[in-house]
Amino acid sequence: MRDHLTRVFQHLEWADARVLQSLRDAHTVLKKDLDLYAHILGSEHVWLSRIHGAPAKVAIWPPLTLDECEKLAAENAAAYLKLASELTPQSRERRITYRNSAGDQFTSTLEDILTHVSLHGAYHRGQIAASLRASGGVPVPTDYIAFVRGAPAATGRRP
Known about the structure:
The protein is mainly alpha-helical. The chain has a single domain, classed as Up-down Bundle (Four Helix Bundle (Hemerythrin (Met), subunit A)). 62% of the residues lie in helices and 6% in strands. It contains six helices and two strands. Strand 1 and strand 2 form a beta hairpin. Helix 1 runs antiparallel to helix 3, helix 1 packs parallel to helix 5 and helix 2 packs parallel to helix 3. The chain starts with a helix and ends in a 10-residue tail after the last helix. The relative contact order is 0.18.
């Protein structure tokens, strides 16, 4: 049986790539949608930096182009998949102390951080999908169930 967090980060890679493609396919990319997508990726990077105790090279809200997003998404996905594949029951409980973007210090388990990263991305991908739909586009489904089915979910459009 595949490890749950490995599967979650396979989904994250898939979903981030689908959002990138939907933004590339859009007639016009709204700044707020690109900003949200860059934020997803910047946040993924910052959490990796916190996990590894290294300074972040990318901000939480980075000003990125779609090409820069594509590169960062690939780097993030590879790092999270490697991390998830190396998890042990003990390492999941490793406590990580970090400062948030406001400078406040917190300590969380690695497993809680990894869960947060996956849910945070899902939240903002939903915002991008709603924005694309509101501007007349058809967003690509990024739901986890669509990923495990291997087929797109319903778009909400009736035949």
